[in-house]
Fold this sequence. Notes:
By secondary structure, the protein is α/β, with parallel strands linked by helices. It contains 14 helices and 14 strands.
Amino acid sequence: MSSPEIKMAEISRRMISAKAEQFTESVIREMTRLAMKHNAVNLSQGFPDFAAPEEIKEAARQAISDDINQYAITWGAKPLRDAIVEKFESTQAVKYDPEREITICCGSTEAMMSAMMAIINPGDEIVVFEPFYENYGPDAILSGASPRFVRMQPPSPENPDWSFDRDELAAAFGTNTKAIILNTPNNPTGKVFTRSELEFIRDLCVRWNAYCVTDEIYEHILYDGTEHISMARIEGMRERTIVINGMSKTYSVTGWRVGWALAPPETTQAIRKVHDFLTVGAAAPLQQAGASALRSPQAYYENLAATYVKKRERLLRILEASGFTVYKPRGAYYIMTDISRFRFPADDPRFASPTKDVAFAKYLVQEIGVGCVPGSSFYNDPQDGGTQVRFTFCKKEETLSAAEARLVKLRLRTPLDSIN
Ligand SMILES: Cc1ncc(COP(=O)(O)O)c(C=O)c1O
């Protein structure tokens, strides 16, 4: 850098807010950029590389032809709000008022942020299961919440599901708890919370007068007969639940940026105000197309899950054959793995990193040509995810084949450490 550039950087650094200084750019999205740079097969970020359904694309084209080009009502186009309410009632048997209980946002990312900013005061605590979707960390910082993390343990021979200690969860709640952040089906673990777990969480929310903000974006991506139960369906929770969801994953349109928050009227009023001044509204023609998408026939959702179950089986086989310890997901489209058994040149300066998972992810993308996400990005203390990496399988068969061909090199080049 030239000296004027250095000076400018110094001035800017002093002007940056304390909040913005507390978090880094998204590791997941950085891994996608690295995969592109190294021409690697990108199994890091959870976006499909296959085409979205033709009917949904046609609905978007039609909306633009029909000149739906101006701002929609800030809390969302009426046809989409109506479709969301209908669908939620048919899948979860819970009714919402499309006039007073929905806010359409720019993706569920904005819905989560708007919800947090609408309910959090200084000093409020939120309970977050760990590992967690990385956005929840910056969401907490930006909204001013103090997170209390509760660890989920990976599956073991005694317990085949990711699990949490109920006493530990109970101890994380207290008078300052404003909300628990739930994500079911879960990214990155693939855990689908059971009714019994949800009822236990309900009892804590009621006891401590807390909200449950529940991110249900993978609601239709389920395996092995698991059922998605929304927290809003659990008795006593509709009035204290904010359901976050969106089009991204169910309709394979992550770039459309259409999501929503369902919440009781007073909470919705606050969410709508935040949303209005954050973004005004999501893209109007895509909201219109969303109204058609949400009325897709049941066969669409069945086919989606059936397609993903095959991809899950395939990537599980590939990763296991390559030497990873894999944790089989019950929902969503990610596989968490353990890399403790791998020896690789972690001391090579090209991969130098504070934790093994980051070094491994760099090695994998640069030397093997496959992108994954380091486990540490899902934990508060990076060391805790230091032996895990996450892969996604929301990819074409050709993409998975290309990853398989490259991961063979990993098997050949990287001796497994059978002692560790
Ligand atoms: C749990 C979870 N929530 C939200 C999102 C982002 O959703 P959207 O595209 O609707 O902002 C993702 C994306 O990976 C996710 O995994």
